[in-house]
Amino acid sequence: MNDTIDVRFGSLFPWPFRFVAALVIVAGLALVVERSFLSVALILIGGFILSGYEGTEINKAEKSYVDYKSFFFLKSGKRENYISVEKIFVSTSKVKRQLYTAHTNHSSIFENVEYNGYLKFSNGEKIQLLRKRKKTELLKELERVSLFLNVPIEDNTNV
Fold this sequence. Notes:
Layout: E1 4-11, H1 15-30, H2 36-51, E2 53-59, E3 64-71, E4 74-76, E5 79-81, E6 85-100, E7 107-121, E8 126-132, H3 135-149, E9 153-155
Parallel strand pairs: 6-9
Antiparallel strand pairs: 1-2, 2-3, 3-4, 3-5, 6-7, 7-8
Helix pairs in contact: 1-2
């Protein structure tokens, strides 16, 4: 039986950076024969950006968790111990993004509601596990964690 669950929060870099990283890798692959050192450097830089993500790893047997950051699939983070898990809860947050046009000072503000999933420990400490735009997707992911830890999911959203 596996006593560890890994909950990936998401990429460390926004999509424009990941897109550029993919282009850098393609450019590096195109230069393999002509400029091998430059090619390797470009592939490593692109790979660094594309492989960067963060998450939480929970070990039920040791009663510990690690909020980690990962690059090239190597995780690093500080291990924290807990006494017990009280619950998993869901809340909402409004996210505002202001986008400017390329050649004018005009801007548009876009508001979205995002759903956040938190893990609450018996000492009152909370850590964010996930964030999604769709509540159903978030609840589906949190259900897996809830079954693993045997704790209830509390929905604090008004929607």
